[in-house]
Amino acid sequence: MPHRRNVPKNQRRILAERLKELDCLYSISKISERKGLTLDGVIRRIVRVIPGAWQYPAIAGGRVRLEGKEYRTRRFVPGPWVQQSPIVVQGAVVGAVAVSYAEKRPERDEGPFLEEERNLINVIAQRLGEVIERRWSERRLVEYQEKLRSLAAELVQSEERERRRIAQALHDRIGQVLALANIKIGALLEASADPKLTRDLAAVRALVAESIAETRSLTYDLSPPILYELGFEAALDWLAEWIGQQYGVVVEIDGNGHGAPLSLQWRTTLFSAVRELLVNVAKHSGAKSAQVRLHRKGGMIGVSVADAGVGMDPARQGKGELEGFGLFSIRERLGSMGGEVSITSRRGKGTTVTLSVPVGKPETT
Asked: How far apart are CA 202 and CA 156, in angstroms?
């Protein structure tokens, strides 16, 4: 390689210009890939590195316009010595990138600007278009996900309202009719003198009693009145008894929440989630017992559901193994309302799922 003194001055200048251009493009790439930066932050940083790639950086300024918003350096001066290129996103011009000189300089290929600088500003505009398109796509995706979460939360609440409506109809209409029929049959039994009729009435009364029990059970399965009448902790006590009867799993309730101030929406959402988790324990964990603990810390109320069952491999917890048992829907449900779900599990050591929600009304997205 020839010594620097043997390289013609003009070639050294050209090499220096190309190095500045490469450095500018490299900086733009690094800025656009930086995590945690908003689109505003990306453009503000990019516009600051652009002037340094031009022939006369000491008097150069940069500006980016995007949909009516302007980002510029202090040295940018609108005037006769401005070079610019349109920013295009999906075939539409959405803005422009420009470089200005504050003072007159010798005429070159395009006013005081080089042909290479025209090529560079075109590449910068193209890169900006790609960055903007990607960020807008990401924003649209986030908005779409938020709408889906909001819709999911609305569907859950609609389902709960419908469950409660059906449960009330079963109790108020069918349940009362059956109860009245039971009373009437009882009166007929007392007045009957015919042994065969008495036996038949007794059989019918037994069927009515069975129907009353099934109706009451179905009412509680759909939407336990105790949740609305006596509160969340009383409903958990009933749920523990129900899980024991249905699945043979002993559920211990540790009500350290001491009357936690949960809104009706949080009560119904948490109760539904805890019921789903306990059913999962009964069906999938292999455990014969489970613990439900309420706790409060600061502005958050927590409900933990723990078992000593088969558990999961920690290395697979982030790969969807735990999410397969309905936990995804629980996470989305609570997340859309401002709550959180955390899971700890070890193979052969059981699983603990903690639901945390803020005190007060749920958020809506």
From this structure: 43
Count of domains for the chain: 2
Which is nearest to 359 in space by CA: 280, 317, 301, 310? 301
The CATH number for 118's domain is 3.30.450.40
In tens, the pLDDT along 60-96 reads: 999 999 988 999 999 999 989 999 999 999 999 999 9
Q: Is position 349 within any domain?
A: yes
Length of the chain: 365
Please list the alpha-helical segments (H only) found in 170-194.
Answer: 176-191
Structure tokens at 12: 């050294």
Q: Which domain does 124 fall in, by range?
A: 4-145
Assigned token pair, 289 = 């017992």
- Given 98, 126, 145, which residue is the final one in a domain? 145
Q: Residues 129, 243: one domain?
A: no
Strands, sheet with 92-101, edge to edge from the N-terminal-most edge strand = 69-72, 60-66, 92-101, 82-89
Distances (CA, A) of 299 to 10, 79, 82, 267, 358: 69, 57, 56, 16, 6
Is-above-0.70 flag for pTM? Answer: no
